[in-house]
Design a protein that fits this description.
The chain is α+β, with helices and mostly antiparallel strands and about 260 residues long. Helix content is about 30%, strand content about 20%. Belongs to the protein kinase superfamily.
Length: about 260
């Protein structure tokens, strides 16, 4: 089994990059509610803590407060080339609205001619994925602990009519006390009824997403069921080397 799952994103709801990130057009960008406005010179880069398809994440230190943060830096040409404008916009819009102890926090956004920036919590415990792979599987008690916190986070998002759509161990971080923080909100969306966008990770997709029948917030509960199975068994219930093989198995079990 691969060490990490491939993400699927087909989005027909694109906005211009300039419109999606206009709030960071000034020299200091824009602070999220209840947070101060920063500039890049306020932050000291300590280390690179993650790399992705179109950017990287740095551990940075606020020169004034000495507090640590995660600074997500995305290359604008790559975001446009990979048609990720809407995902970046979604993440910013959702994180600007939410405030919950089990969700990552966004403090500040900014962009210049080359990069987009998002200043967020630094969560030092790493991914739940890493712990699950090193242990093989979790005990019932451990699985129940993480599940209860995930339920709280998902219920909070749904109370704000937000569907998350990317629940998996790689997107669950652990803080210094072992509590969860959901991260990566590129597929999250404000949703009052249904949407037809095909996005997510194949192993976690609900049947109605695969069949393009239109889906609502219930797809997050399907993904949670898959995640609970994986935490307790050590592998997802539907797996194949080919994504289409995964889709077939999901649909066959739910005819």
């Amino acid at each position: 089994m691969a060490s990490s799952k491939a993400k699927l994103g087909v989005n027909s709801e694109t906005n211009s990059l300039k419109e999606s990130n206009s709030s960071g057009s000034g020299p200091a960008g824009e602070a999220s509610p209840n947070h101060r406005i920063y500039c890049l010179d306020d932050l000291e880069t300590v280390a690179t803590v993650g790399t992705g398809t179109f950017g990287r994440v740095f551990l940075v230190k606020d020169k004034k407060s000495r507090a640590f943060y995660a600074l997500k830096q995305m290359k604008i040409p790559d975001v446009i080339r990979l048609k990720q404008e809407q995902h970046v916009h979604n993440e910013k819009e959702v994180l600007t609205e939410v405030n919950h102890p089990f969700l990552i926090r966004l403090f500040w956004t900014h962009h210049d001619e080359r990069f987009l920036y998002m200043l967020m919590d630094y969560v030092p415990g790493g991914e739940l994925f890493s712990y699950l792979r090193s242990r093989g599987r979790f005990s019932n008690a451990t699985g129940l602990f993480y599940t209860s916190e995930i339920v709280c986070a998902i219920e909070y998002l749904h109370s704000k009519e937000i569907v998350y759509r990317d629940l998996k161990p790689e997107n669950i971080l652990l803080d210094c006390e072992g509590h969860i923080r959901l991260t990566d909100f590129g597929f999250a969306k404000k949703l009052s009824d249904r949407t037809w966008t095909l996005c997510g990770t194949p192993e976690y997709l609900a049947p109605e997403v695969i069949q393009s029948k239109g889906h609502g917030r219930a797809v997050d509960w399907w993904a949670l069921g898959i995640l609970i199975f994986e935490m307790l068994a050590g592998y997802p219930p539907f797996f194949d080397d080919n994504p289409f093989g995964i889709y077939q198995k999901i649909l066959m079990e739910n005819c």
